[in-house]
Write a sequence for this structure.
């Protein structure tokens, strides 16, 4: 045990932290996309596993062709719009339930991504292509700054979009579709729009990650929905803790990105503890489960059948004391009181 | 003017649960008519509302608004013609949005929803004025989530939302049924006021016969998908609950089996 702790190197953790922050900022964009479908539209969209890898695959292949990095990311974004449209089409036009519609698109994207890349993974030769985002330690500071700027801009656009007439209609659709139709909102169109925007953000995030790590893998999106949800949920729990009642929409969005950063910092920390990388998916599930359980337990504290026992303990104690008091000390007094009461009620009855 | 012509609707056709909900229903509402609709459970009261609003397509028949057939339009496409208030207070508003945001959604009914701001400061002033007339204290809570409001407050808000953009017809589907008697009468009062002020054409379903008699200038009674009684003007003013019960037994050829209607006298 001592040997294990001795082998942990604090400097290594310090060195790994910026990488965690950068990854968190990149995944934060993906989490914003998940926030759009999962929270705003109330739609469990499984497409994201496919659209994340789609963004990465397209980015790498275009970079290999020597396309400008800014155009690469625009194309990633557009491809995500397309992926979201397919899921929306399956759901609204063909009547396929939400989860299934997303899974169908996701599974089809696996083949599409393989076709795009020609094989399971493609790497960009280091130093031969110009990129904005890189995990190269020398430019990591710049990458973090740039990703932060991108995140802030995206949050601002996201906030503006949901504040517009169109965005309000999307929010209303997610909350109460019946009422939305009664107010003349084409709920099907709103669902498709939200799925498109959500998946576009996810795909953009995949593209940036591919630039950052210098390669794309057909499996890079696997389980990303869980990471996205983890970020959203961690963000919500933290936002509630930090802002409480002053929580507004822009803070919610910001905390979604912060949630992603926290998730990756935990990830880095656990890797530093020398957890085998194979166990990371297990870890993700545990982290998500913990953060999902926190609000539940908080509520249980004040309202649950089980908690009632504890809440009643005081009451029971007081009752017991009162009963004992009656029996031993105030026996006669209590008797008098009772008699008094009977006479009083008797008088009232008269 | 709203016209229903030969409207048929059968639910679950060809199955053991087949239910002929509307059978050859014909109805013409003149501009400014305030028509109340009564009938027992399963008579087709809510079905007629949903048919007009376009919740599902008709089996056959036409619905004309000012002479234009709208029966081929879907629910959201028809929304500009109708203001709707539902039985369940949860249905008419978006719980997780603010009062002003809900009203802004309603203010844009029938308009293109583009990329202008969804709820402007100027609008908020007019909303505040509208709400202050309800006298429910909502004007000071414009930015509160609608989910925090009581059932009565939500129905009142839904009523405002249904009428702030003048509809061709106001559809009230038992909008006070889920409220306690005191709140229900308050909401009904507000309904009368809004309908009169804006001279709205209104169709109001109710379980309460007294309300059906007290409000509006016309009353229709439904039974098994048929309009079995249609009374208006002076004749309606003279109606009593006993008249209605008698009428019902007479036309439907059976005792009035709906306790809820009798109890709600």
């Amino acid at each position: 045990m001592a040997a294990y702790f001795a082998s942990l190197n604090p400097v290594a953790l310090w060195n790994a932290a910026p990488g965690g922050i950068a990854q968190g900022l990149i995944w934060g964009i993906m989490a914003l996309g998940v926030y759009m479908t999962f929270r705003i539209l109330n739609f469990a969209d499984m497409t994201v596993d496919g659209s994340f890898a789609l963004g990465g695959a397209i980015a790498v292949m275009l970079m290999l062709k020597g396309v400008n990095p800014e155009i690469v990311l625009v194309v990633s974004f557009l491809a995500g719009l397309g992926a979201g449209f397919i899921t929306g089409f399956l759901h609204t036009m063909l009547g396929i339930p939400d989860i299934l519609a997303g899974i169908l698109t996701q599974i089809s994207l696996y083949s599409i991504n393989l076709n795009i890349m020609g094989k399971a993974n493609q790497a960009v030769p280091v130093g031969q292509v110009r990129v904005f985002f890189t995990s190269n330690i020398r430019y990591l500071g710049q990458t973090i700054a740039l990703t932060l700027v991108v995140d802030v801009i995206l949050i601002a656009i996201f906030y503006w979009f949901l504040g517009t007439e169109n965005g309000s209609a999307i929010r209303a659709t997610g909350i109460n579709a019946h009422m939305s139709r009664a107010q003349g909102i084409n709920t099907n169109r709103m669902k498709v729009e939200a799925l498109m925007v959500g998946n576009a953000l996810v795909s953009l995030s995949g593209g940036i990650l591919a630039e950052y790590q210098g390669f794309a893998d057909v499996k890079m999106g696997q389980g990303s929905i869980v990471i996205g949800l983890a970020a959203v949920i961690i963000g919500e729990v933290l936002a509630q803790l930090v802002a409480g009642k002053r929580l507004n929409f822009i803070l919610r969005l910001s905390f979604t990105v912060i949630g992603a950063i926290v998730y990756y910092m935990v990830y880095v920390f656990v890797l530093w503890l020398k957890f085998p990388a194979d166990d990371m998916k297990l870890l993700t599930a545990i982290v998500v489960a913990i953060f999902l359980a926190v609000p539940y337990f908080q509520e249980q504290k004040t309202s649950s059948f089980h908690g009632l026992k504890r809440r009643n303990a005081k009451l029971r104690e007081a009752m017991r004391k009162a009963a004992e008091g009656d029996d031993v000390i105030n026996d006669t007094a209590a008797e008098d009181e009772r008699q008094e009461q009977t006479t009083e009620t008797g008088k009232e009855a008269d | 003017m709203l016209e229903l012509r030969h409207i048929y609707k059968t639910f679950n056709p060809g199955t053991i649960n087949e239910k002929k909900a509307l059978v050859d229903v014909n109805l013409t509402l003149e501009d400014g008519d305030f028509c109340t609709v009564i009938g027992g459970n399963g008579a087709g009261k809510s079905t007629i509302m949903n048919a007009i609003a376009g919740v599902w397509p008709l089996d056959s028949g036409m619905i004309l608004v000012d002479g234009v057939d709208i029966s081929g339009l879907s629910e959201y496409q028809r929304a500009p013609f109708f203001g709707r208030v539902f039985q369940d207070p949860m249905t008419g508003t978006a719980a997780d949005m603010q009062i002003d945001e809900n009203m802004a959604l309603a203010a844009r009914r029938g308009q293109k929803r583009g990329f202008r701001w969804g709820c402007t400061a100027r609008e908020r002033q007019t909303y505040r004025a509208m709400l202050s007339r309800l006298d429910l204290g909502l004007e000071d809570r414009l930015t509160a989530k609608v989910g925090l409001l009581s059932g009565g407050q939500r129905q009142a808000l839904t009523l405002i939302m249904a009428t702030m953009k003048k509809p061709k017809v106001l559809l009230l589907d038992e909008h006070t049924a889920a409220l306690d008697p005191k709140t229900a009468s308050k909401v009904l009062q507000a309904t009368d006021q809004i309908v009169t002020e804006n001279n709205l054409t209104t169709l109001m379903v109710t379980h309460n016969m007294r309300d059906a008699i007290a409000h509006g200038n016309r009353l229709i009674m439904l039974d098994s998908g048929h309009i079995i009684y249609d009374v208006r003007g002076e004749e309606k003013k003279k109606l009593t609950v006993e008249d209605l019960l008698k009428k019902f037994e007479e036309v439907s050829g059976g005792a009035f089996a709906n306790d809820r209607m009798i109890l709600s006298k």
User: Anything to note?
Assistant: Chain B has a mean pLDDT of 91. The first strand of chain B starts at residue 2 and ends at 11.
